[in-house]
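Purpose: get a first structural picture of the assembly so the mutagenesis plan has something to point at.
Setup: two entries, given in the order below. No constraints added.
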Amino acid sequence: MTTNSLTTSQGAGRAGDKVFSGATLAAGCLILLVLFGVALFLVIQAIPALVAPPADIQGGHGFFAYIGPIVVGTLIAAVIALVIATPVAIGVALFISHYAPRKLASGLGYVVDLLAAIPSVVYGAWGAAFLAPQISPAYNWLASTMGWLPIFQGPASATGKTILTASIVLSVMVLPIITSLSREIFLQTPKLHEEAALALGATRWEMIKMAVLPFGRPGIVSAVMLGLGRALGETMAVALVLSSGVLTASLIQSGNQTIAAEIALNFPEASGLKVSTLIAAGLVLFVITLGVNMIARWIITRHKEFSGAN
Amino acid sequence: MSKRIDVKDLNVYYGSFLAVEGVNISIEAKSVTAFIGPSGCGKSTFLRTLNRMHEVLPGARVEGEVLLDGDNLYGAGVDPVTVRSQVGMVFQRPNPFPTMSIRDNVLAGVKLNNKRITKGAADALVEKSLRAANLWNEVKDRLEKPGSGLSGGQQQRLCIARAIAVEPQVILMDEPCSALDPISTLAVEDLINELKDEYTVVIVTHNMQQAARVSDKTAFFNIAGTGKPGKLIEFADTTTIFNNPSQKATEDYVSGRFG
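Result (structure tokens, whole complex):
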């Protein structure tokens, strides 16, 4: 009988390997546990609100009648914020990565990153105290010239504290997230592909359309979705800027509410079933963000074959 | 559909660093010219000045004249975009656009500058270009698949098809076979031989047998030492360069007694 000499382990060095793999496994499991724990907490705490008789819920028509309008308000605010922020962010990112002289680019990139460091309560205060009064004449103008559109129906809010103002503040807040991520992606465009486009006689813009944007597309989608996540969940800025109320189609009147701001404004004084109702609202927000992320992943994988990763 | 190139007293800089000094060379239309020389001697740098791709790098600039049938590429008011649509380029590593299908890759240059092309004309052009690049039979059934799914040699021929689809006057090739296996290399070399019937071809290569096989004329570049500018040492018929060079440095290099 001979023993296989290859089976005898050297011992030294293996222990570190085991500790490291154990640590990474623990970290990975911890994330899942936390996520699962939060989801479980939300579901358990929300159940009373979901099964309670409709008359007991705030508004008196049941949970879904209560949550529906603020879900719509949340989505309106987030979508408007992204519609404003995405083109600006991609433009700024492209300017930094492909147009600006190197010195200006690094300075500008730094300033954009600073925007992300400003606390949201400061944005809220800025939106409520400065932007809202400044912008209300524009709302009056919108109401008088395009008032026939339901979204610009007058009379415009005199204070300017509307969902549109909140969306504009949100767009400024998500701008740095989308900009920095897109910029990093654009900088990673292979030189090879940029030069291939230029050598065919592409102008700079055509080169960007041909090589940079297609390469960065999955990254842009992820960046926008991260921005959307922030816009959906942003609480303080909306709570300060928006003078909330019932769901209204007009973006320039006071009214509407978002889930996060609704929870923040009502939670301190809530008790009993009201707490359950607010936590159920939180569960809905959780499900929406989860759904958004899954859609984003689906969009990214849809074109995997052409992604450049192969 | 091909033009000659005359270069007069060309100095090429990276910032303040003089990379290539005092090049004078005349490249005939419808011929294959090979640039050979040791690494770092500036042959690729010089090649990139022939379609103004050199200046894509920050701080890069040139002094002197490059004449394409008498028109100076570096004249006042000349748009590099126009230059590059007349002088195409194939790179060291195959670089088809990964986000485009094979068909779209071939048409990439044609659709630039807002040019419109009917579907029939596009189909014909795709077939013509891929046939000219000896790739048609291999890809005709999968034109809508991504170009990055091809083998390295096929990708490089796809890049050549993409370059000739815009019908340039000159095609520059920067070590086009250095990332390819011998069989793919042979396919590209055969293709170069066919291309010279219609195009002026300039090829940079590290492979002296390749230069001897494909080129009509050969230019030998050399560098005196690190930090010194590269220079054109000798330019003559390929047979002369390899059998009877007039410069000692050329003879040492082509016979392998380099350094």
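Chain B touches chain A at residues 51, 53, 56, 58, 81-82, 84-86, 88-89, 91, 93, 95-101, 108-109, 112-113, 145-146, 148-149, 159, 162-163, 166 (CB under 8 Å).
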